[in-house]
Design brief:
Strand content: 25-35%
Number of domains: 1
Shape: globular
Largest sheet: 5 strands, mixed
Number of helices: 3
Oligomer: single chain
Radius of gyration: 14 Å
Strand order of the largest sheet: 1-4-5-6-7
CATH topology: Lambda Exonuclease, Chain A
Helix content: 40-55%
CATH class: Alpha Beta
CATH architecture: Alpha-Beta Complex
Order of helices and strands: HHEEEEEHEE
Distance between the termini: 16 Å
Structural class: alpha+beta
Number of strands: 7
């Protein structure tokens, strides 16, 4: 099971690296989202885009929803950023998405760093 999950994670990471190789840093997040979606399609990676996530408080469904950039393979949350440097708030956002969905794996991908694509893997 772990190997299958690792293979899926590597496939997603490879798609992100390809996007960065072609576009580099400097675009807004929405450009990377569109390019990343194209790369997922080319690689045959199943995904959903802009997935609405319910949030509960003490068993009560809240009106406020999260919106994950992508969910790949039905259970890997992928959040894209285009910032010069990731910070704790970015990781906290991904962590909260994982808690809300009960998914185990998330990837935080940052295309904004001029040194290369940053990919943080988060296991819930």
């Amino acid at each position: 099971m772990a190997l299958v999950c690792a293979d899926k994670s590597y496939s997603i990471r490879g798609a992100a690296m390809k996007v960065y190789d072609i576009l580099g840093a400097g675009f807004v997040e929405s450009v990377y989202q569109e390019a990343f979606e194209i790369e997922l399609q080319r690689r045959g990676i199943p995904y959903q885009r802009e997935v609405e996530i319910d949030v509960y408080y003490d068993g009560i469904l809240l009106e406020k929803k999260f919106r994950a950039d992508f969910v790949c393979y039905d259970n890997i949350i992928v959040e894209l950023k285009a910032v010069s440097e990731l910070d704790g708030n970015n990781m906290l956002q991904l962590s909260n998405y994982l808690k809300a969905t009960h998914n185990k794996l998330g990837l935080l991908i940052n295309f904004g760093n001029t040194s290369g694509v940053e990919i943080e893997r988060w296991v819930n």
